[in-house]
Write a structure and sequence with these properties.
This is Amidohydrolase-related domain-containing protein. Helix content is 42%, strand content 15%. By secondary structure, the protein is an alpha/beta fold. Strand 6, helix 4 and strand 7 form a beta-alpha-beta unit. The radius of gyration is 22 Å and the shape is globular. The structure holds guanine (GUN) and fe (iii) ion.
């Protein structure tokens, strides 16, 4: 039926028409978020990364030692995330094993597809003496305990075991927070755990152990990393590569200031990039050239990066990804206009995405299938193609109480008569939803065929809350 992803050979059923003003799209995939930072939303935007971690983030994350606090926060986080249409999420917990177990339990109960990781933070840092693990041994032991705990979770409903793939909904993910928070020994050991896991599953259709971390988010961070790891000879990506944690299953948050050498290592490993533009703006980190990464053939998805990102909704991230791409295009135009035959040179570039504004279908791709590729989950989610799990959103822009208000009415009154008009209308409605919609327009959220969120779910007396 309607195909709207056409650029770069992506061609898959992404948007299905239901009736005027209503359509189905694949669920959003948040490839990078910190469940423990939701209480910090909209706090600390005056800082840049390392001071923000020190003054805003670490003091809050310390509180997750308290299990009751953790339970309350995580319940809200997962409910909100589902209602915003996020069907798959990659969660960083705190450094605590207890809180991380609770997070996995709640995700499992509420039926979201997710990866849950406990932060490895075993490097002693005189700047942050109060939020650090006791030893490398404890960091690794707790990581292994969390993996066993998550693997032993029983899916809450028979729906959760549907599908052709044995991959469970909730899975563990190794989470070395970033190069500055881990010792070399810890990184090596995590690489060995990933190796051992890959060896053990050889030949069997079993889930792979993913890894998530941050990379090249901020210039000062980059400088400190290459100073601390002189053997990496100036490359941040090489630090991860040298220790065996840069792999096909690795999700790299941010990647704003990557050098050509970094890109080389990332490409070689086939790791993916989680583009977090809301956070990148909020913490004045910069604009990631993700158009270039797409042209280089890297896997790219989107992430909220709560609480670096001030919004839990992927719609906000889509909007900021659009703005980021438009700023890069405007800068490119400016550079070109200083040259001689500027426009010509810009218009005829061979690149599809480098320094070009993203089209609506590319934004939708990044928020769905791109994210699935980054998570190595594209066989089972990320689009409405046959054979995948039904992870999807029913969207309505008709509801006058919804964010689109009066435009919703307009959508209803202009019934397209031909198939072509109908597709055009659908594309227009999609753009309006992505830029002006909110959770009121998300009526139903399905994960693996099970209704787990959305306005209709909330309004039902059984699920009402
Ligand atoms: N780098 C290391 N930890 C973090 C974090 O919690 N958020 C962001 N945005 N960057 C980080
Ligand atoms: Fe982050």
């Amino acid at each position: 039926m309607e195909e709207v992803i056409r650029s770069k050979g992506y061609s898959t059923n992404q948007v299905k028409f239901l009736e005027e003003g209503e359509f189905i799209i694949p669920g959003f995939i948040d490839t990078h978020t910190h469940a423990v930072q939701y209480p910090n939303l909209g706090k600390g935007g005056q800082f840049e990364l390392l001071d923000w971690l020190k003054y805003v983030v670490f003091p809050k994350e310390k509180q997750f030692k308290d299990h009751n606090f953790a339970r309350d926060v995580f319940h809200d986080v997962i409910r909100r995330s589902l209602d915003f249409g996020t069907t798959t999420s990659c969660y960083y917990s705190s450094l605590h094993l207890g809180a991380s177990r609770i997070l996995a339990d709640i995700v499992n109960q509420l039926g979201q597809r997710a990866f849950v990781g406990k932060c490895n933070m075993d490097r002693k840092d005189p700047e942050n003496p109060h939020y650090v693990e006791a030893s490398t041994e404890e960091s690794i032991d707790d990581t292994l305990r969390l993996i066993s705990h998550i693997r032993s979770l029983v899916p809450i409903s028979k729906h959760a075991s549907l599908g052709t793939f044995p991959e469970p909904l909730v899975q563990p993910i190794l989470t070395p927070r970033f190069a500055l928070s881990c010792t070399e020994e810890c990184l090596f050991k995590l690489g060995h755990i990933a190796d051992a896991h890959d060896r053990a599953r050889r030949g069997r259709e079993e889930p792979r152990l993913r890894i998530q971390t941050h990379i090249a988010e901020n210039p000062r961070e980059y400088r400190e990393v290459v100073e601390k790891y002189p053997n990496a000879k100036g490359s941040y990506a090489k630090v991860y590569e040298m220790h065996g944690v840069l792999r096909e299953t690795t999700i790299l948050g941010h990647g704003i200031h990557l050098t050509d050498e970094d890109i080389h290592w990332i490409k070689k490993s086939n790791a993916g990039i989680s583009h977090c533009p809301t956070s990148n703006f909020y913490l004045t980190s910069g604009i990631a050239p993700v158009g270039r990464y797409l042209d280089e053939g890297l896997k790219v998805g989107l992430g909220t990066d709560v609480g670096g990102g001030y919004a839990a909704s992927m719609l906000n991230v889509i909007q900021n990804a659009s703005i980021a791409s438009k700023m890069l295009e405007a800068e490119q135009r400016e550079r070109d206009s200083r040259g001689n035959n500027s426009d010509e040179c810009f218009e005829h570039t061979e690149k599809h995405f480098t320094n070009r504004k993203f089209r609506t279908e590319t934004l939708l791709y990044l928020a769905t299938l791109g994210g699935a590729e980054v998570c190595n989950l594209a066989k089972r989610t990320g689009s409405l193609s046959e054979g995948k799990s039904f992870d999807a959103l029913v969207v309505s822009i008709l509801d006058e109480t919804g964010a689109l208000g009066v435009w919703g009415k307009e959508a209803k009154s202009q019934c397209p008569s031909s198939e072509v008009q109908r597709i055009e209308k659908l594309e227009e409605n999609l753009e309006r939803f992505l830029f002006c919609g909110d959770d009121r327009n998300i009526r139903r959220v399905y994960v693996q065929g099970r209704l787990v969120g959305g306005k209709a779910f909330r309004d039902s007396p059984v699920n009402g809350y």
